[in-house]
Amino acid sequence: MNLGPLEIGLIILAVLLLFGYKKLPDASRSLGRSMRIFKGEMKGMKDDDVRGKEEATTVRGQLAPPAAASPTAGAPDYEAEALAAEARAAEARAAEARARADAARSGVTPADGTR
Q1: What is the pTM of this model?
Q2: How far apart are CA 65 and CA 68, in angstroms?
Q3: DSSP symbols for 74-111
Q4: Cα 86–89–90 angle (5° rounding)?
Q5: What is the per-residue pLDDT across 54-95, written as a single tens digit (0 to 9) for each?
Q6: pLDDT tier at 34 (50, 70, 90 boundaries)?
Q7: Of 3, 12, 72, 100, most Cβ neighbours within 10 A?
Q8: φ, ψ for residue 107 (rounded to 5)?
């Protein structure tokens, strides 16, 4: 699908008519912030995946028991601990995203200096 100069001009004109020239900078700034937050969350998810795989192979500096081995009575449940850690990390990421969104709405820069 090739867009020629006429089609691009019509799209720009329609956007200007719909939003007005005064609101376009705010809309683009908001879109940029949203993309930055989304990009940061995706990076965080990738980092959590890497950490989760590392935790699955080593727990507290010791090798985790193989999956085929039967758990013994009184042994720690590594899988439950990993799931709980993942849940806590997800809650922390969600709280951080809410704080950043609140800060963006109020126009206040977060304490860590990120935007």
Answers
A1: 0.35
A2: 8
A3: T---HHHHHHHHHHHHHHHHHHHHHHHHHHHHHTPPPT
A4: 85
A5: 777 665 555 555 555 555 555 567 787 888 888 888 888 888
A6: very high
A7: 100
A8: 80, 15
> In the structure encoding, which two tokens stand for residue 68, read together?
């085929």
What 8-state DSSP symbol labels residue 55?
H
Contact 18, 67 (CB under 8 A): no
| 95, 99, 102, 104: CA torsion to nearest 10 | -130
Alpha-carbon Rg for the chain, nearest whole angstrom, is: 23
Separation between Cα atoms, residue 14 and residue 20, nearest integer Å: 10
